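Methods: example folding runs. The two proteins below were folded one after another, and each record is reproduced exactly as written to the output file, sequence line first and structure-token line second.
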Amino acid sequence: MKSIFFKFCFFIISTTNVATLFSQDVYYVNRTEMLYREYAPHVGVISELYEGEIIDINSPFVGTDSKGVSRVVVKTENGISGWLATDAISVKDSVALPEEITEKRWTHSYYLDVLRSGKKETLFVYEPFWRDHFYEYKNKYGNDFYNTWTELAYTNYMTITNIFNTFYDLTNNYWYLINGKIEEKNDVYQFFAICIYKFGYFTESELNKYFNVNEKVKIALCLDGDYLEVFVNDTHLFTLIVLDEEIEFQFQCLMENNACDLTHITWPRRADGSMDYPPPEVPDNTQAEQSITEPVEIASAVESQENAVTKSTTRAGKESMPIWAWIMIICGGAVAVGGVALFIEKRMH
């Protein structure tokens, strides 16, 4: 997978104290863990923190090392500051997200439809940016930018944990968020989060209006088998699927060679056993390749999108549907409409 250099760097984000924005929440160390001088552990240990110690996340910094461990700067009750792993931090009285969410990598569900089509240009149906604006940015950034849109259009994955989240949009922009206390009702997990950093070449990103640095947003998660529905400020933002190595590898092959082998893919299922994107009976890689400068209209993509339980990857209409209606559709009616509506209303005020 193509990696953007900044992902493994140290970020200077802002001067806002996260603890101030989440003043009602108490953060503590959930296991014995080392406090480091920098986000990369080879720099040296400051001290050892013990389970139950109260801390503040009061720093404008976050870092992810080469092994994928994310750390933030915290301050202990004794006034010692250092880098602590985000998964070693918990919030008092917070519900823990299930491991089915936190232990997996997630990506946009429509990547399966791109794979089913056997044509990389199918991505334009969902991410028209690559067709319409990529070369504008290449001209803007010059020789240091990527040569082709397929170098960027790989399967990005998102991580969602009890404290720290990474969200990617359609164009490799990404946002880092710190969570407050998590509450659960009828298998829907809701919490407020603060965007502490965002990066992106592409300023046209629609997610910019949802994730502004130092602003709180309300997030709701509904797990449905291998699918995860994500809501931000009561808007259904996207549907995610579990990303395994085979899906990732075949998507990369498709982007590089305009061909892929779907025979070994394990297609994700919802809790009731259904699939939004069932595997094709006969993979079709024989259709003529279309120019990346022309719009793409693929019948299979449209048909599967119409038959999907959710149409989360399309933009039109999703903002107008209330969160309880989405959850009722997605989670098979497992949520009591009145209970969720009342719960959300209380969290809004």
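Second run, written to the same file directly after the first:
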Amino acid sequence: MKRIYLVVLALALLAVGGCTPPPPIEPTPEVTGEEESAPPEEEAVTEEEGVARVHDQSRSGRISQDEIWSGTIRVTGDIWLDDGVTLTIMPGTTVLMSAGRDDQNRGAEWVLDESEKEKIGPICTVEYDKSHIDITGRIIAVGTPDEMIVFTSDSTNPSYADWAGIVLRPGSRIEYCLVEYGGRIGIGVQSNIPQDESVLISNNIVRHIFLGGISLGGTTCARVISNDISDCGSEGINVEPGGGAPYIAYNTVKYSTVGIATLPESFAIIENNVLIDNIRGIESRANDTIRHNHISSPTKQIHEQSYMGYTWPYLMNPPPIRFAGIQIDMNCSATIEFNVIVNNDMGIAIVPMASPSLRIEKNNIYDNDVINITNPTGADISAQNNWWGTTDIDEIEAKIRHYNDDPNVGKVNYQPIATSEIVTAGPQD
């Protein structure tokens, strides 16, 4: 969970059982800008039947019994819940996180050392020379479309990494929340329960995050559904190694370095998502099922917050950035079907050192500026029955890089081809 990508992970794939996808949830509502909140008046904590009700008060430190938050809550330091304790946050609550301050002094471990600063440069490190605040535990934060719960910085001039993020433990549920200005995450999940489907993250807005918007760790099979995620310096949604099989569906991810990324050992189902203007729409290193997504980069604009894709690690002389619909890394074993992959620089890009085992079928892959698919590896790739925007084999071949261009690499076996656009590709209701 706590990571900055300064090394290349090389982990073996492990088998794990899948999780059952839930029915879709309605899309995220639009939210307008927030007004400045006046400091709340401190009120006493009231207790009834072992539950503390906290309204318009400051909180910090350990929570050893169930609490219910409402009004405006000012968080001044790390908060961690004892096992078996639940924090419930009522609709309409605003949680203000102290920007760059932590009265628990638990954030010092996140400050980079000098060697790390040299690697990633001043634009990145300025955000990490701060204390960070986590809220960690079993959290039930369920707002409504009209009364969203807000987690934000208390700064009058908020910025990336003003606080650290929310870490959900098994049994948590976070819906109709606005989460912004986090550091290493917006919302994270950590579980060691095999095939744990107990966490639901849905209908949230997650934005302005220094690294990952939503990060899924351990063995979680969390359901991540109908969230609007944007402006993340690393991934919009990230699946950490650990054998998890999360269900990631009906999300919109924009303006981040990577829309959705998976690491080895994961078995994610990634379907019905819309990925727009991310440097890499989906980056798969695992046993993923990738289907019915729309992946495009209509503006190909590098956003300032894309630290991991642009500022790091290429500070002095950055190479040209290529926007890729799907990037295949390492020993990826993925099924890629019924996707629309258009208007990127590269449609499907396989990295040279990868050893993939792929099935690429019944996608619409066309109008990508440089190439539609590239295979620089030594293995042949199956990519049959896709629509390439034309039936002219010479035109199709012109946007495929493989054995016919370099006999030292494998083939892209793209025939037979689809003879017309696949109408069932792309997100489905």
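Comment on the second run: The chain has a mean pLDDT of 84.
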